[in-house]
Write a structure and sequence with these properties.
Largest sheet: 5 strands, antiparallel
CATH superfamily of the largest domain: Hypothetical protein af1432
Shape: globular
Number of helices: 15
Number of domains: 3
Structural class: alpha+beta
CATH class of the largest domain: Mainly Alpha
CATH architecture of the largest domain: Orthogonal Bundle
Order of helices and strands: EEEHEHHHHHHHHHHHHHEEEEEH
Number of strands: 9
Strand content: 5-15%
Helix content: 40-55%
Radius of gyration: 21 Å
Distance between the termini: 33 Å
């Protein structure tokens, strides 16, 4: 029998199983490649949501069919599209929420959380298989999903995660109060147009705070999601601990989704460049602890993935350094390839994503 690999859900792991790649947590090695899983490791994995699945060795005569992974991603993409349509309906009828309470928001939030419980697939879909030019509804669903997952990683309790998801869903609601000439403008905004656009957190806050029985943390998360730790954000210009923790989470999710969907101020050439932008902003603008939690988890999901370089060659990711995210250590034709030493090479995209896009 040949040794093969497969992903095993955390709750199905057994002591003695051998992992295929390193598992890192908060910048430290939790379990090294080719090591047996222990009871202590399983406990830490379950408590901290480091990953939801672990790749292990097993005996089999044939390789896993990539079509399963493709079908899973396509199914998830269908769910994202459906959620976006549902959110558009909620936004178009949201005035009724003020009469009927928050039942519709609660129901929609639960659907999102139930669908996105398989963290690895969601992370890959949004981060490494993201589509460009999202509308406000798809963007809001993406931000909700990332915020929900990051909230779990940060150890937020169930009530906090529910409220965080509400806030993330509604974070850009105020933009619907802007004119379409501003939202859909391709050219740079004028000073006055940019001033109007920057008022969207206040417009969203003013409406959301009036929804009966909705915790104030939801509206505060909306109001402050463009604030920055160094005080350079808007609309209040506050800094540090004055910013609500929901806003700190949403800020990361909002920025990252804008980067990978080409709605950022500059075009990025690879998923790892997008991660580097988050890392760089964590030094002054975004919450450092929250960013490190986000980046460390995403790095864990990168290990073992197949990627294509800008020269067309295919490689497997061995290790990603959080302090040098653009230059992972790769395996190419049985030999290690360190992009730190190859200045003309970079990871262009993930190979399985190319297969999906070609269908």
């Amino acid at each position: 029998m040949l040794l093969d690999k497969k992903f095993m859900p955390i709750d199905k792991l057994e002591v003695g199983m051998i992992i295929t790649s390193d598992i890192n947590f908060q910048g430290r090695l939790l379990l090294a490649k080719n090591s047996p899983i222990t009871e202590g490791t399983i406990k830490i994995l379950k408590q901290n949501y480091i990953v939801d699945k672990v790749e292990i060795y097993f005996e089999n005569d044939s390789k896993e069919d990539i079509s399963f992974k493709m079908a899973t991603l396509e199914s998830l993409e269908t769910a994202f599209t459906e959620f976006s349509s549902n959110l558009e309906h909620i936004f178009s009828t949201i005035n009724n929420i003020k009469v009927n309470g928050i039942d519709e928001l609660r129901s929609f939030s639960k659907k999102i959380q139930d669908e996105f419980v398989t963290t690895k697939t969601v992370v890959r879909d949004m981060i490494f298989y993201n589509c460009a030019d999202h509308d406000i509804y798809r963007h809001s669903v993406n931000v909700s999903a990332i915020s929900f997952i990051l909230g779990k990683w940060l150890g937020f309790n169930e009530t906090e995660i529910n409220l965080l998801t509400y806030s993330a869903m509604l974070h850009d609601y105020g933009k619907l109060k802007m004119g379409s000439n501003i939202l859909n403008k391709k050219e740079p905004l004028t000073y006055n147009e940019n001033k109007i656009l920057r008022s969207h957190p206040i417009k969203g806050y003013d409406f959301i705070k009036s929804i009966p029985y909705l915790d104030t943390s939801v509206s505060l998360g909306v109001l402050m999601h463009h604030e920055r730790m160094d005080g350079s954000g808007y609309p209040l210009g506050i800094s540090g601990n004055k910013i609500h923790k929901f806003s700190k989470v949403i800020a990361i999710a909002d920025l990252f989704d804008n980067i990978v969907s080409n709605n950022y101020s500059k075009k990025v050439s690879s998923p790892f460049e997008a991660l580097k932008i988050i890392h760089d902003d964590s030094l002054t603008k975004l919450d450092t602890t929250y960013c490190n939690m986000f980046l460390n988890h995403v790095i864990n999901y990168c290990a073992g993935e197949d990627v294509m370089l800008n020269d067309g060659s295919s490689c497997k990711i061995i290790k990603v350094d959080i302090d040098d995210l653009s230059n992972p250590l790769l395996l190419h034709n049985g030999k290690l390839l360190d992009l730190k030493e190859e200045k003309n090479l970079y990871v262009k995209n993930f190979i399985s994503d190319d297969l999906l896009k070609a269908k």
